[in-house]
Amino acid sequence: MPTPSEVLSVTRDGHVATLWLDNPDRRNAMGPPFWQDLPLLMDELSDDDDVWVIVIAAKGPAFTVGLDLKSMGGAVAGGGNSSGRSDAHLRTRMLKDLKRMQGSVNAVADCPKPVIAAVHGYCIGGGIDLISACDIRVASADAVFSVRETKIAIVADLGTLQRLPGIVGRGHMAELAFTGKDIDAERAAAIGLVNQVAPDADGAYKAASELAAEVASNSPLVVQGVKAVLRAGEGRSVAEGLDYVGVWNAAFIRSNDIVEAMTAFVEKRPPKFTGD
Questions:
Q1: Bridge partner list, 184
Q2: What is the pLDDT of residue 1?
Q3: Backbone torsions φ then ψ of 119, nearest 5 degrees
Q4: ∠ CA(21), CA(26), CA(198), 5° rounding?
Q5: Where are the strands (E) in the chain, listed by range?
Q6: How far lies 40's CA from each of 4, 78, 108, 125, in Å?
Q7: Per-residue pLDDT averaged across 82-104, rounded?
C-alpha cells in the first residue's frame, strides 16, 4: 500500500504511475505534508518493479503556487528569536530543515526511472525546483512559470539554480532568476524548458501519459540504463562517458529483454519486455 498523504496521491495505468499533487483547494501550495510525503512516495515508486515510468501532474487550477507561505513563511523569514536559544542553534535548525526540503526534490531527481512533468496553470517557486528535477516537461497553453523566490527576497535554494541552467542555458536561467518574471508556455517551449505545449490541462496530461506509455514500451532495464549513463556523463569528458557506458553494457547487456528484442525482430512482431 502506498504511503497515505493528505496532499499527494498515486494512480497507475499499466507500467506508468502518476504522482498527483492533490491539494487543489490550496492550489497545491507546498507545505510541511508535501515535503514530508514526496520523498516517501518517490522512493516507493522507485523501488516498485512494476512501475517503469512516472508522471508528475496536479489536480485543480494550478500545478503549484510554490511554497506554502501561510504555514512556512515564518520559518523561512526567521520570525525573530523569542525562544532563548542562540542564533547559531536556530540557524543550524533552519539549515537542517532546508536540507530536508532539498532532499525531497532530490528524491525526484535521483529516481532511476524516467520522470515526466505535466504542467498546467501556475508553476512558480518550488514548482520550478520540482519540474527541474524531472527528465521531461510538458505544459498546457495556460501554464505560467516563474522563479518567484527572487520576488520575495529569497535566493532559490531547492535545485533550480543548479539544474535549470543545464535545461535552458545560463543566459535564460540568469534572466529568469534575476527578474523573477513570469513566462508563458510559448516562451518556455522556445527556451527548452518544456518539450511540447498542449491546448489545456487535460491535453498536457494526455500528452505526458502518451509519452510515458511510449517510453514504457521499451525494456525498463535499458531505459533506466540510459538515464544512469546520461547522468553519469554530466560534467565528464566524452572519453569518460564512453568508458562508463562500455562498463555498463559489459555488465548488463545480457538480459532476457535483449533476447526477446532479437526474437521479436526475427519473428516480425512487437517485443514484449518484462524487465528481466
A1: 144
A2: 61
A3: -110, 135
A4: 50
A5: 8-13, 16-21, 53-58, 115-119, 122-124, 136-140, 144-146, 183-184, 196-198
A6: 10, 27, 10, 22
A7: 84
Using DSSP, state whether 10 is helix, strand or coil.
strand
Give whole-number Cα distances, 273 to 14, 83, 256, in Å.
Answer: 13, 59, 8
For the chain, the average pLDDT equals: 93
Quick check: 20 and 7 in contact, CB under 8 A?
Answer: no
Return d(Cα 111, Cα 118) in angstroms, integer: 17
Query: What residues are paired with 64 via a beta bridge?
Result: 123
Q: Which residues pair with 127 in a beta bridge?
A: none
Give the Å distances, CA to CA, from 98 to 42, 157, 158, 163, 168: 19, 8, 8, 17, 25
At position 100, the amino acid (one-letter code) is R
pLDDT of the residue at 74: 59
Cell numbers 554530466: residue = 234
**Cα dihedral across residues 36, 38, 42, 45: positive or negative:** positive
Q: For the chain, state the CA radius of gyration.
A: 20
pTM: 0.92
> Torsion angle, CA of 55/61/67/71, rounded to 10 degrees?
-120
pLDDT in tens, 151-169: 999 999 999 999 999 999 9
Residue 38, C-alpha cell as written in the block: 514526496
